[in-house]
Specification:
The chain is an all-alpha fold. The protein has one domain. The N terminus and C terminus are likely disordered.
């Protein structure tokens, strides 16, 4: 189906332009302001504080209760006003190495600079994805598209938190483009870089392995080793010791985080729970949680591997890469709402597959996008303010609102799996129907 202005009546195009201008006017100022707000507790403060620690001779992974009052006394100097709940930077040393230039800036300026750079990376990645998938998007839709992004919760949380998803999205997009052009070493290089920054993109090595991209796997591993050695030379070997033996053991509690939408998060909240996260388990059966994780992760891994192994053409390779990205979000021990920003390529791939297909699949994609776009955390904050939200959330919450993102990821993965199988059957000559 060609997406051009002729397919839309002029009054509909005008309506979308007016609606887009209204959204941009209403939300644009707030969005821009959030790019530099000196917000207490946003994620970038972890990298910024770690860099400042290194500049001032403190351990890179010093307890935030020590480092933040020293570096940001106006925010954290009074313990009666601000309670520091996250004590260590949860991100790997290579992410701190990446953020070293931000240490020369004040925190507010660092947040602004990082958000501007991240937005440029995100918009460039979206352009590359659209061009790579050869999607025909009419010129008049770019303004409504910008308005939609302003309302898209993963992007809002990326800016609010100053997260690392901008650079990760660009690296993973470059890896996809390199692999589909036969440049497997470059694909491995980009995946290796992404993995040392945030670890969970390492799931994409499964894609390379099952596609028999051995040179890509080797290049990726050497890239990880090289970046790690450079980071050790700059930050010191004790930084890795602190990260491995002090920081990582503290991350277990976050797996039961209210917004964790991964397989790990669902089963741990349901059968282990967390006192610090105020999540009560259905039953204290850790063995069942680990069994659920093992079976679920095994099924997702098998599905990714099967599609990647069977893919032979560029089109089925795209399907395999898209499925791997969605599976990566499910397999990661922790997947927050801002992490869903990394799923632009799978969403655009689905759009390409279903736009001329069945109404059921198109409606499914629409519901997936709308669910991702909705800020469930804001609803929780409002309910807490009005004292409606319980202090300890039971299994009904885990099976309900706390798992909406998880259910949506599973639905997205199943939809991709179904369309990928149909595409592979068509390529093999067993099914001549186009994916719908």
């Amino acid at each position: 189906m060609k997406a051009n202005s002729e397919a839309w009546p002029w009054w509909m195009i005008l309506f979308w332009q007016i609606a887009a201008l209204f959204v941009i006017t209403i939300r644009g100022e707030e969005f821009v302001r959030s790019m530099k707000m000196d917000q207490v507790g946003v994620d970038l403060v972890q990298e910024w504080a770690s860099v400042r620690n290194w500049f001032t001779g403190l351990p890179v992974y010093e307890d935030h209760a020590v480092s933040l009052p020293r570096h940001l006394p106006e925010m954290f100097g009074d313990p009666n006003k601000v309670r520091i709940e996250i004590h260590y930077n949860a991100h790997p040393p290579s992410s701190v190495f990446l953020a070293l230039p931000l240490g020369w800036l004040s925190y507010g300026d660092a947040l602004l600079a990082w958000n501007v750079i991240s937005l440029l990376m995100i918009f460039w990645s979206i352009y590359l994805i659209i061009r790579g998938l050869e999607l025909k998007i009419p010129a008049w839709f770019w303004l409504p598209g910008l308005a939609i992004l302003l309302l898209y919760n993963p992007l809002k949380q990326q800016v609010n938190q100053g997260q690392l998803n901008g650079i990760l999205l660009l690296l993973l997009t470059q890896a996809w483009l390199a692999e589909r052009m036969g440049k497997e070493r470059w694909a491995g290089f980009w995946i290796g870089l992404a993995t040392v920054i945030k670890l969970f993109p390492g799931a994409l090595f499964l894609f390379l392995l099952m596609r028999c991209r051995w040179r890509g796997v080797i290049t990726g591993l050497f890239t990880m080793l090289a970046v790690t050695l450079i980071t050790i030379l700059v930050l010191g070997v004790e930084t890795y010791e602190d990260y491995l033996f002090t920081v990582i053991p503290t991350l277990n509690e976050f797996r039961a985080g209210k917004l964790n939408s991964s397989i790990w998060g669902f089963w741990i909240k349901l059968f282990i729970g967390s006192q610090s996260e105020k999540v009560q388990a259905l039953a204290a059966w850790p063995w069942l949680a680990w069994l659920g994780i093992a079976i679920s992760a095994g099924l997702v891994t098998w599905a990714i591997g099967w599609v990647a192994w069977r893919s032979r053409t560029q089109e089925s390779g795209d399907a395999a890469f898209a499925l791997t990205l969605t599976g990566m979000a499910l397999l990661s021990p922790i997947t927050w709402d801002h992490s869903l920003l990394l799923l632009f390529m799978p969403l655009f791939w689905l759009w390409k597959q279903v736009k001329a297909g069945s109404i059921v699949n198109r409606l499914s994609l629409f519901l997936i996008v709308m669910t991702f776009a909705y800020n469930h955390n804001a609803e929780r904050i409002l309910l807490e303010r009005d004292k409606i939200w319980p202090s300890l959330m039971g299994p009904a919450f885990t099976l309900g609102i706390l798992s909406v993102y998880f259910y949506t990821l599973v639905a997205m993965f199943v939809l991709q799996w179904t369309l990928s199988r149909r595409l592979l059957r068509a390529e093999a000559g067993f099914d001549q129907r186009a994916p719908t």
